Amino acid sequence: MTREKLIQEIKSTKSFLCVGLDTDMDRIPKHLLDTEDPIFEFNKAIIDATKDHCVAYKPNIAFYECLGPKGWESLKKTIDYIPKNKFTIADAKRGDIGNTSRYYAKTFFEYMDFDAVTIAPYMGEDSITPFLEYKDKWVIVLALTSNKGALDFQFMTDLSGEKLYENVLKKTSKWGSAEQLMYVVGATRSEGIQSVRNIVPNYFFLVPGIGAQGGSLNDTAQYGWNDDCGLLVNSSRGILYASEGEDFASKAQEKAIEVQQEMEVILKDKGLI
Amino acid sequence: MTREKLIQEIKSTKSFLCVGLDTDMDRIPKHLLDTEDPIFEFNKAIIDATKDHCVAYKPNIAFYECLGPKGWESLKKTIDYIPKNKFTIADAKRGDIGNTSRYYAKTFFEYMDFDAVTIAPYMGEDSITPFLEYKDKWVIVLALTSNKGALDFQFMTDLSGEKLYENVLKKTSKWGSAEQLMYVVGATRSEGIQSVRNIVPNYFFLVPGIGAQGGSLNDTAQYGWNDDCGLLVNSSRGILYASEGEDFASKAQEKAIEVQQEMEVILKDKGLI
Asked: Which reaction does it catalyse (chains A, B) (predicted)?
């Protein structure tokens, strides 16, 4: 998907919500466990219920991988089921030497038709550029994450006062343009979002950490906004497990609408719609 | 596998060779393509041919993942086929928040019975510790990698003169002992190996980069050795694709024996056997 189409989708849906498909066999409603593919049945219902209120879906690959080949089948069916006007993100956090990165790109961009994949930057340029060889496909680089462990290395400061995550932003933004590269920027660090926005004004951010992890949507919009919105805000558990009963899909829809309406207010406030 | 058993295996095999199973559909001999599971048939033959000359196997997960559910089946069959006295490494380079890391651990330590998994440290402590909750299972943290991109971030230097990879070693070695944690240290940077050894004297290193990437076995042993050997030196393409004909397994065996014999000389020189 092109950046232009993504922005168009944000405007027409009046939303910059990304629904995280962290689909967990231990948490999906019991009545689905008797179906042939409970993971896919759950995702299908969630997608049907939320697709008018979000612009992106982000399956967390760990949740599928741990189920073996069957999990990969559920994932493939899910990605094939998501409407083509939605931006799809494989939250895989891969990162390897060039030779191996090419195979990861093949997995997520050829075997499965994802629009984007999340990448850890530790191994540098050749862990990122093989993904950028695919036209209209995206790499989403971990910059400033939302977890506690983010403090361990991402804030390491060099001799010029630059932090590791700032260094990651400066270098990686030379390897890929804002038409193909985004950044993971956790919502739990508002001051961080602003510092990231200052370094890469044009890039989109994928923002996890709203809801279960405690981040705020308004703070994220205040500090992370750019002229094209520039934000995909993810919510996983808050939507997926709004109810653990047979009404899970309608409750998920209610939650998605609730977030979408907050986003609509922000989009209007900012003058994008 | 315990550290003690691994050291015992090194002594009895007179080898610290790890065979990297980067099994590539485009490079395996043509006559295998007619079998039901070419990847597994290839791996089976390679394992049979090399198991007396190595102590570890390291499937590179990217090569299996890109084949979809069938690739995961080949991987599962491969890990089940490897003799139990061999140390097995899922070269997956995962790294995510704690909640997700638990699922990755489940994949590699429960669904598949790997001894170890490689992990990228960018997201910090909670991306590593969930794996350490498994008894006798290992995390192998990327410290100093063998690729060109290693120079992009791993050598970033903080105010006290400490490099990122040194910081990673110091912090992560507090999270896990040498009984459960190892480091990836590329053979292409001999001076780097020595600096890593100085910081973590007791830990094992998984050393890629010998052969195709240009690293030297003798330099690695000179700079990386510790009292228990402390090295697992990986070779992938040099062994797997020693021949692309029907004699691939016997040629792979010849190559493995060649490396094992060099290692035996080193092990004797160092007085470990």
From this structure: orotidine 5'-phosphate + H(+) = UMP + CO2
Decide if A154 touches B, using CB distance below 8 A: yes
List the single residue in A67, A153, A171 with the smallest CB-CB distance to B124. Answer: A153
CA distance B14 to B16: 7
Q: How many CB atoms lie within 10 A of CB B12?
A: 11
Q: How far is B48 from chain A (nearest CA, A)?
A: 25
Q: With contact defined as beta carbons under 8 Å apart, do A63 and A74 qualify? A: no
Q: How far is B198 from chain A (nearest CA, A)?
A: 21
pLDDT in tens, A99-146: 899 999 999 999 999 999 999 999 999 999 999 999 999 999 999 998
Quick one: how far is CA B271 from the chain centroid? 24
Active site (annotated) includes residue A93: yes
Torsion angle of C-alpha atoms B186, B187, B190, B193, degrees rounded to 10: 50
B positions 1-40 inside 8 Å of A (CB): 22
Over the stretch B17-67, which tens digit does the pLDDT of each residue have?
Answer: 999 999 999 999 999 999 999 999 999 999 999 999 999 999 999 999 999
| Domains, chain B, ordered by start | 3-269 (3.20.20.70)
